[in-house]
Amino acid sequence: MSQSLLKPAIMPVVFALAGLACGGGPPQDPPAMPVKIQVAKSVPVDDSSEYVATLKSRGSAAIMPQVEGNITSIFVRSGARVPAGAPLMQIDPVKQQATVNSQEDTRAAKVAALQYAKQQYTRVQGLKSSGVISQQELDQAKSALDAAEADLRSVEAQVREQQAQLRYYRVTAPASGIVGDIPVRVGDRVTVGTLLTTVDGPGIMEAYISVPVERAAQLKPGLAVRILDSTGNVLAESHITFISPQVEDQTQTVLVKAGIANAGTLRPAQFIRARVVWGTRDGPVVPVLAVSRISGQYFAFVAEQEKDGLVARQRPVKVGEIVGNDYVVLEGIKEGDRVIVSGTQFLRDGVPVAPQT
After folding, report:
1. Averaged over 77-82, what is the pLDDT?
2. Helix (H, G, I), strand (E, B) or coil at 211
3. In a domain, 211, yes or no
4. CB within 8 A of 338, min separation 6: which ones?
5. Facing residues of 35 across strands?
6. C-alpha to C-alpha distance for 326 and 145, rounded to whole angstroms
7. Using 50, 70 and 90 to split pLDDT, how confident is the model at 29?
8. Considering only CA atoms, which of 221, 266, 97 is closest in space to residue 169?
9. Has residue 28 been placed in a domain?
10. What is the pTM of this model?
11. Same domain membership, residue 346 and residue 305
C-alpha cells in the first residue's frame, strides 16, 4: 500500500491525539441548575364546594296597597331612610271618605232613634204602673228599644270598619329601613296586587344555596358556610340553618339557607359565592409560584434523587383551593416531596438541579 493512501486514515487519529495532548476530553454533563426547594408538608384543609347563592333580607318588606285607587301623593324618594310608620304614599280617599261620612250620618240617625225608643219605653213603663196600658204594650216598647240598640251597634261596627279602611289609603312603612325602587307615579291606578316599593331594614340576611341532589345526603344543620367575594376573600362566616325536605324538580337541587349578619356590604337579591365546608382533612400544600398551567393542566417540578444527584421531574398535579399563598394539592404530590419553587420557567424534565443555600 502506498504512503499516499495511508495519510487520509492517519490524519483524524493524529488530530484526536493532538486534542488530548492540549487538555481536551469527552463532552461534560451540563452543570446543575441552582434552585430553591421546599419540602411539601400537610396542613389541615377544608373539604368544601362552592355554589352560587342568592341573598334575601329577612327585614325586607314588599309594600303593596290594601285598597284600590289612584295615587295622589308620593312622600319619599328611592334610597330614603324612613322610620317605622312614616307615610310613603297617598291613594285618593275621596270615595272612601264619602262612605265614612254616610255611615256616620246613619249612626247619628240611629242614636236619635235609640233616644226616642228609650223615652217611649220610660213613658210606657209609667203608664203600665198606673194601669193605663197592658203588659203587651210594655213588651212592645221594650222590643223597640232593644232593636234600636242593636241597630246602633251594627252601624257603629260599620263605621269602625269604614274608618279602618280609610286608613289604608295612606301607605306607611311597616318598619324602619331604606326605600327601594318606586315603580309607580302620581296618577297611576293601583290594585291590591300592585308593588308600590320595598323597605329594606338592616340586620340578618339569608343566603339561598342550591346544592346538587347528589350531595344532599351530606347536608346537615350546622355545616359551615363561607360567603366569598369575587376574589375569594371571605366576607362572612355562617352555617346551615335550613334544609329543604324537597328536591327542586327543574334543577335537581336541594335548597339550603344560611343566616348572615349584614355588615353593610351585601344587598338583597345579590348573587354571591357560597362555600359549603363538608369537613376538614390533612393535605399537602405547595407555593402558588411552584405551579404552572399549560393548556389547562397544572404542573409542578419535583427534585428527585438519582444516581448522579438531584434531577427535576415535571409532574401533573390536581390543585384545590388557595390557602394563603399555597395551593392545596389533591393529586400528584405527597407530603415529603421536594418541590422546586424557583426558576421553574427555565426548567425541563430531567435537568440536574442543586438546592440553593
Report:
1. 92
2. strand
3. yes
4. 37, 38, 39, 40, 302, 303, 304, 310
5. 355
6. 91
7. low
8. 97
9. no
10. 0.55
11. yes
70 backbone φψ class: left, alpha, beta (φ>0; ψ -120 to 50): beta
How far lies 8's CA from each of 16, 194, 241, in Å? Answer: 14, 107, 93
Query: What's at 97, amino acid-wise?
Result: Q
Contact status, residue 285 vs residue 333, Cβ threshold 8 Å: no
CA atoms within 13 A on the CB side of 159: 15
Contact 42, 284 (CB under 8 A): yes
Q: Which residues contact 164 (CB under 8 A, 6 or more apart)?
A: none
Integer Cα distance of 91 and 169 in angstroms: 5
Phi/psi for 205 (5° steps) reads: -115, 170
Instruction: Assess whether pLDDT exceeds 90 at residue 256.
Output: yes
| CATH code for position 293 | 2.40.420.20
The set of cell numbers assigned to 93 is: 280617599
Distance CA 148, CA 156 (A): 12
CA distance 324 to 156: 72
How many structural domains compose the chain?
4
Residue 323's pLDDT band (cuts 50, 70, 90): confident
If one counts every other C-beta atom within 10 angstroms of the C-beta of residue 123, the result is 12
Q: What is the pLDDT of residues 93-119, one digit of tens each?
A: 999 999 999 999 999 999 999 999 999
Phi-psi region of 222 (alpha: psi -120 to 50; beta: other; left: phi over 0): left
Whether 71 is in a domain gets the answer: yes
In a domain, 126, yes or no: yes
Place of cell 220610660: 122
What DSSP character marks residue 248? B
Instruction: Report CA dihedral (115, 116, 121, 124) to the nearest 10 degrees.
Output: 150
Question: Under a CB-based contact definition with an 8 Å cutoff, are residues 258 and 241 in contact?
Answer: yes
Range of the domain at 185: 66-88+173-200
Return the higher-pLDDT residue of 87 and 57.
87
* pLDDT > 90 in the chain, percent: 52
Please give the backbone phi and psi of residue 95, each rounded to the nearest 5 degrees, phi first.
-65, -40
